[in-house]
Amino acid sequence: MTDQGAMVVFLYSSSIFAINPLTAYNKTAEEAKAILQPFLDVLADLSIPYSSAATNYSSYRDHYDKWMGPLPYGHVEVESYNFGSRLVPRSVLSDTTSRATYIDAIRYGADTYGVLSAGVALNASAPAGVDNAVNPHWRDATIHVQYSTAWSNDPAQWDTMISDQKRMTDDIMPPIEAATPGSGNYVNEVDFRIDGWKEKFFGSKYDKLLEIKQKWDSTGVFYALKTVGSDVWDVAADGRMCRA
């Protein structure tokens, strides 16, 4: 699907699978249906019931509002989930053995911990001659996949939520990382406890980004956890910051 110019958002757990939506830029609804049809044929061959619909909009905004809205906030309540994520290289899915290992890893999270997963399949390879700050791991990836467990802001649930966060780091994500060796993560939707963040979030671009950071923010005024230059600060449990 991605080879034909589509971006596919999908959702799955131990009990459900859904594509919502498949976005085919600059194509008609009929062309989008043709892209999806081989997948629907497989479902039919497996006697798996499904429903599908195709729409056509003149703007991406209207398309988004229909399938991911309502705008401006959308229908995904991200504050209700604890996240982990991984960029899945195309090479992992192309090889029979590595693909089976990856499938075993996602089944482990779903079956053992009730993980809900959402993915975005797309072609993010770089056009010729483009050199920018995008994490190089995106260029080899065909899927950005998220793993989530429920999150509650109820103070009475705090200890349970912290335990769930650590479970994401220590139990759920390691099999996924092992199944996708050498890949990385999308910094905006990731387990914040992850180790090796410089390579996983920024790859070979980190040193250049740090050079720019030091030029324009030499005192480190602008800070975010595990971002470029953030290790000049130590943050205490109470949030107080000191120079490392």
Describe the structure in your own words.
This protein starts with 5 loop residues before the first strand and ends with a strand. It folds into 2 domains: 2-203, Vanillyl-alcohol Oxidase, Chain A, domain 3; 204-243, no CATH class. The chain is globular. With 244 residues, it is an alpha+beta fold. Helix content is 38%, strand content 19%. It contains 8 helices and 7 strands, in the order E-E-H-H-E-H-H-E-H-E-H-H-H-E-E. The strands form 2 sheets. A 5-stranded antiparallel β-sheet has the order 2-1-4-5-3.
What is the terminal-to-terminal distance?
47 Å
Helix vs. strand class: alpha+beta
Could you state the order of secondary-structure elements as H and E?
EEHHEHHEHEHHHEE
CATH architecture type of the largest domain: 3-Layer(aba) Sandwich
Could you tell me the strand content as a percent range?
A: 15-25%
> What's the gyration radius in Å?
20 Å
Tally of DSSP helical segments: 8
The overall pLDDT average reads: 94
Highest-level CATH class of the largest domain: Alpha Beta
**Biggest sheet features:** 5 strands, antiparallel
The overall strand count is: 7
Strand order of the largest sheet: 2-1-4-5-3
CATH third-level topology of the largest domain: Vanillyl-alcohol Oxidase, Chain A, domain 3
